[in-house]
Every structure is written in structure tokens, then in C-alpha cells.
Specification:
Blueprint: E1 2-8, E2 11-16, E3 28-37, H1 39-45, E4 60-68, E5 80-83, H2 93-96, E6 132-135, H3 138-141, E7 143-144, H4 153-156, H5 162-173, E8 180-184, H6 188-199, E9 204-209, H7 212-220, E10 224-227, H8 233-240, E11 246-251, H9 268-276, E12 277-285, H10 296-299, H11 302-305, H12 313-318, E13 322-325, H13 334-342, E14 354-357, H14 361-369, E15 378-381
Parallel strand pairs: 8-9, 8-11, 9-10, 11-12, 12-13, 14-15
Antiparallel strand pairs: 1-2, 3-4, 3-6, 3-15, 4-5, 5-7
Helix pairs in contact: 5-6, 8-9
């Protein structure tokens, strides 16, 4: 079968890889019909992780079940499913607590937790930017979709990662009806965080970024855009809140944050968030930060290469703020968010700019990585046929 394979920094190809197959009675095989390129894929694409050459990418996946293992009892062949990027067992200590993002069973390294499809340091699992995908513990990990799944794939595939991740940011930030919320980053996750805050009834939502096309999408969902190439976001928010700051906020950029001139600073948006949120406010950080960044020494400094970020902790402590961090436990939210989509209350596909066949993945990665104008979210559709 064909899959998007990482060959080295800034080099992916659509190549032949071994066919996905049942390896355990609890496995299912899914014919991938929609799979997204995620902003966190770009960390690997740029060579800023330990992702191995020859591995396939892709952790935002949905499709049609074409085979089930002998131990699968719920999921049926022919059903459409969307797959949380977290691969989880459902029965370890973390999964029992609802923390499927830190599953202890599927992560093969005993000192670590959490597994994902086609992702650095999160197990050996193949990615879903491919014609077919093996899904371990299919009954637990696959979220079944309704009769409208095939025609509404652009909405439902967002349940694999970015919609629940954006929602998770607002949960960690404690966004409530009437709140004033700031979101740093207008990439796909930041837009989903802003959208989630609006869905929760936030009274005012700001989104800070310097990409005009992405800020336009933020305004499309009812947020107030702050162009960081022209304005200081903290000053804008303080001016609008009697000097106090937002009630809460979300960081949706991560360790490759950079200013409008392109200078990287891993602490940039974190510290702007601390400055922008009021005393005792809550912060939700879902932007990716890593304990090691091999490319960080050249791009930033030696400390950043070791995952050490110069945080304005004194100000954060003085303001009595609380911070939640980490990847989203997708299963905690995806069923409810699915039902919002099915009921017509949510349409996360508003941010999709390109739908492309799988063989165009190399050029799609190139454009998405460059933040080419208009490239806000890419959905790939593998050209396989039903089994």
C-alpha cells in the first residue's frame, strides 16, 4: 500500500510500505478516506524531532472499517470511524482515569507514557497518511460515526485531534460562559480553541497571530483578531479590560513560536499569555513543547535544545495563575463533539483550505510548512478503493 514516508528534513514521499494487517485479535483495519496534515507533523517534517527516516506520518485519521480481529465485538466492517490520535488500551491506570493521552500499555518505553500514530517518541505505530491503517484495540479507540459520515468527512476528521485539542485547551483554561478569553496562535488548533470558547459562550475571545489569512478565519468564528506584527497583544487586552487582562487563555503555538520577522523564541507566546491573563486566571497550554529539541541549538540556543524555556515564572507566581499542559485526551471529548457536529451545532471544517489526493502530499507539506497564503488546513484523501 502507499503511505506518506519521512525521508529526512523537508523531504517526504508517497511510497510503497508493507500492508496494514491484523496483528492482535483486538485490531481493526481501516481504509483511510480522510487524513489531515497537522501542525505537529511539521516538527517532524523539519527534522526537529527524533522521528526515524522511513516511517509513515499521519495521526488525524478517519475511514471505513474493512477488517476486524476475532476479539472485536462492537465495531463492524463497513462502518465509518474516526480515530483519536492517542492510541490507548482502555484498562491501564491512566486510561481508567480518562487520561488516554498518557496510556501506559501502548507506549513501549517503561519510563514514558502515551502513544500515537506516526509520531516521534510515541511508539512504533504506522501513520494514517496512507491507504490503510491498523488500529489497536479497535473497540476502544474507534469512534463510530453516523449515516452522514461519508459526506461530512471534513467535519468529522477534525475529531481525531485538533477539535478535541482546541477544546482541551479551553477546559484547562477553565473557560465558562461570559468569560473573556485570549488564544495565542491562529493555526488550526488555535482556531479550534477560539471556536470552542465561542461554543462555550465566552463573552469575548481574542486571537493573536501575525498571519492575515488565519486571523480572518478567527474573525469568521466571532473572535477578535490581534495582528502581532502591528500590536502588542497584552496591551490590547489590558486596554480592553481596565488594565486587568483576560479571565483565561490558551497557548496553541508551542516551542517553535516565532515573531513576525521569523526569529524563533520558544518562550514568546507563553510569556505573552502570562502577561495577558489577569491575577488568578487559568492558562491552557496545548502547543507542543519537547524535553529535547535537536534543532533548537541552531534555531534558538543550547538551553532550548534541552527543552528548557525561559518562562516568566515570577510574574505567573505573583499573579497566582494556574497552568494546565499536555496533549489532549481525545476520547474525553470526541463523542460529545461528534454529536455537536451531527446536530448541526458545530462545523469545524470552516478552516479547511485544501482537499488533495494522497500523491500530492509532498507539495502540500511544503506549502503548509512555509505558511503559504491560504494554506490553513490540508485534508488528504488516499486513492484506494473499498476492499
Amino acid at each position: 500500500m502507499k503511505a506518506v514516508v519521512y525521508n529526512g528534513p523537508h523531504d517526504v514521499s508517497v511510497s510503497e510500505v508493507p500492508d496494514a494487517r491484523i496483528e492482535h485479535p483486538s485490531d481493526i483495519i481501516v481504509r483511510i478516506t480522510s487524513t489531515n496534515i497537522c501542525g505537529s507533523d511539521l516538527h517532524m517534517y523539519e527534522g526537529r524531532t527524533s522521528f526515524e527516516q522511513g516511517r509513515s506520518l499521519g495521526h488525524e485519521n478517519m475511514g471505513e472499517v474493512v477488517e476486524v480481529g476475532s476479539g472485536v465485538s462492537k465495531v463492524k466492517v463497513g462502518e465509518y470511524v474516526v480515530l483519536p490520535f492517542n492510541i490507548a488500551c482502555g484498562f491501564c491506570k491512566q486510561c481508567e482515569r480518562g487520561l488516554t493521552n498518557y496510556c501506559l500499555t501502548m507506549q513501549p518505553e517503561p519510563a514514558m507514557a502515551g502513544a500515537a500514530y506516526g509520531f516521534a517518541e510515541m511508539g512504533p505505530y504506522a501513520g494514517g497518511q496512507a491507504e490503510y491503517l491498523r488500529v489497536p484495540f479497535g473497540d476502544f479507540n474507534a469512534l463510530r460515526l453516523g449515516e452522514d459520515a461519508a459526506e461530512r468527512q471534513k467535519d468529522y476528521v477534525m475529531l481525531a485531534d485538533i477539535f478535541p485539542t482546541g477544546y482541551h485547551a479551553t477546559e484547562m483554561a477553565g473557560v465558562k460562559p461570559g468569560d473573556q478569553t485570549v488564544v495565542f496562535g491562529a493555526g488550526p488548533v488555535g482556531l479550534m480553541a477560539a471556536y470552542s470558547a465561542v461554543l462555550k459562550g465566552a463573552g469575548r475571545v481574542w486571537v493573536a497571530d501575525h498571519q492575515p489569512d488565519r486571523l480572518a478565519l478567527a474573525e469568521h468564528v466571532g473572535a477578535i483578531a490581534i495582528d502581532t506584527s502591528k500590536e502588542n497583544p497584552a496591551e490590547v487586552i489590558k486596554e480592553a479590560t481596565l488594565g486587568l487582562g483576560a479571565d483565561n487563555g490558551c497557548e496553541c503555538v508551542g516551542y517553535q513560536a516565532h515573531d513576525p520577522q521569523g526569529q524563533e523564541d520558544a518562550s514568546l507566546t507563553l510569556n505573552q499569555l502570562i502577561d495577558s491573563v489577569r491575577f488568578t486566571g487559568r492558562l491552557g497550554v496545548v502547543g507542543v513543547f519537547l524535553p529535547e529539541d535537536p534543532g533548537g541549538k541552531e534555531a534558538q540556543n543550547e538551553l532550548e535544545a534541552q527543552g528548557k524555556v525561559p518562562l516568566d515564572y515570577g510574574l505567573m507566581w505573583f499573579k497566582g495563575q494556574a497552568m494546565g499542559t499536555g496533549q489532549a485526551p481525545v476520547k474525553r471529548y470526541n463523542r460529545a463533539l461528534r454529536d455537536l457536529i451531527a446536530g448541526g451545532e458545530a462545523e469545524p471544517s470552516f478552516l479547511v483550505s485544501h482537499e488533495l489526493p494522497l500523491h500530492e502530499a509532498p507539495s502540500a507539506y511544503e506549502n503548509f510548512d512555509r505558511r503559504s497564503p491560504g494554506w490553513t488546513k490540508v485534508v488528504l484523501h488516499p486513492e484506494s478503493v473499498p476492499a
